[in-house]
Request: fold
Amino acid sequence: MNRDSDAPKPEFRLPHSLWRPYCQMKTASPPIEVESTNGVTLRLKDGRELIDGISSWWTACHGYNHPKIVEAIVSQAQTMPHVMLGGIVHDQAIRLADRLAPCLEGDGNRVFLSDSGSVAVEVAMKMAMQHWANRSPNGKTSRNKFVSFQNAYHGDTTGAMSVCDPDDSMHANFKGFLLDQFPQPIPETDEQEASFDLFVEQRKDQLAAVIIEPLIQMAAGMRFHSASALQRIERVCRKHDVLLIADEVATGFGRTGTMFGYQQAEIAPDIMCVGKGLTGCSVGLAATIATAKVYVPFHSERWEAALMHGPTFMGNPIACAAANASLDLFETEPRLEQVAAIERTLRDRLEPLAECDDVNSVHCLGAVGAVRMKDEVNVSKAVSGFVEQGVWIRPIRDTIYLAPAFTISHAQLGKLCDSVVQSVSRVGAV
Ligand SMILES: *Cc1c(COP(=O)(O)O)cnc(C)c1O
Reply:
């Protein structure tokens, strides 16, 4: 149907129609084709096997194809693959919400289900804003802005993008299109806390909430901050009565060594977003958990005070069944002990790399070990070197990191560490 002049020129032709994420497809090396997964390995179409060091964007906490999760999915698919959540509820969603509600302090918490981490963040932002609107006599609020942090990543939808680092190359193209928010440095010292405090105080009439990824900003390339920085942020939020949102989409479910990162700082977020590991690397699902304090102004005679959100596939029964099976595994298997053992190995093996000339710093926490180089890493070159060694490791910018499944064996983790150690010298030479 194309006129000749519209026909794609040969250089636009690619082997398939998939539009790949964050990828310049003209110059990118061809993606590796995976045929199946099992445990912590990816089996490629050409028969090779790779030990996975990054567990599919940090989601595979129990490894791939965990039989309990697969069983839960199959059995739920046979009973009821999907039903809308408008006017209807079902056991899997109720059970999951009842299990996620206690993940924040206090009684009477509420859990809102959605499909992806980005949407969980959008919902958290809408909750925070509408919380203040519902509390005002005329139902309106000027408190519709957010304080976020440098290097933050909260997702790819527009609200979530607006609280990402504004200078980040991921979303820089959309700068003019996005809402202006208030990105700040993470306060690590008394002095920084004082200026953060002043900043929030001067804008508190405009602020709905502060949003932070507790302990590790993973998507930015594993940027770490201290538990005391989280305490400083919480202190300022409480002082000026601003809500605190913990985005635990990446850090939740054991990744940092505790079930949630915020627990290491002993703070009490008002809202928490979870996603990624929630279904144990099987189906997309996310949740926004709100404390009773956040929820109360929504509980009203007025219809307009209800939370105005409702994704079509929210609370999908298959996804909820997978999440319930994943939470069962956290209860019945020693996941956090496994994470602690992984942390010890990562420290033993990776921390000595801090001495290398090309290495800026090394940080290990929970099942995350990150070697930050002084320069950006040539990612495609590094990845092909890793694939040749039989491992799947994909650096982010200047950081080569491991974030394996918690079920990884000592030998497999050893092989991943060997590959990182070898590549640090090689990458440095590039
Ligand atoms: C990945 C991520 C998101 C977005 O989740 P999606 O499921 O990709 O939409 C949000 N916040 C953090 C901290 C993330 O790491």
Notes: The chain has a mean pLDDT of 95. The two ends are 47 Å apart (CA to CA). The longest strand covers residues 359-365.
